[in-house]
Specification:
- The chain has no helices and ten strands.
- A hairpin with a 3-residue loop joins strand 3 and strand 4.
- The protein has two domains: 38 residues, no CATH class; 51 residues, no CATH class.
- With 99 residues, it is mainly beta.
- It is rod-shaped.
- 0% of the residues lie in helices and 42% in strands.
- The protein has a two-stranded antiparallel sheet. Strands 3-4 form a two-stranded antiparallel ribbon. It has a two-stranded parallel ribbon with strand order 5-7.
Amino acid sequence: MGSIGAIKIEDHLTGKLSANRRISGKIRGEQKLIGVIQPSTDSEFHHKEYDGEYEVIPKAYEKTVLETNKRIMKDDITVHEIPITIVTNLSGGSTACIG
């Protein structure tokens, strides 16, 4: 396992840690700093990549569910507008056609 960061101790704890995934550990300080920091093995934080649609055209009478829960996404999702047309009717009013 390679180095994932550095910590420098003076009057306070400073430094930088970088990792591709969540890290966890315990540090306790008395006269010296003792502890272990390691990559998390908690499966909740190891998400799979989202492989569904990134463009959505909503339907007038049914819902659309994107299975994005606990997934890593590589782009934004675009939700297109629902087409609407407004026309005058024979009564002198307006009729909206949605979808």
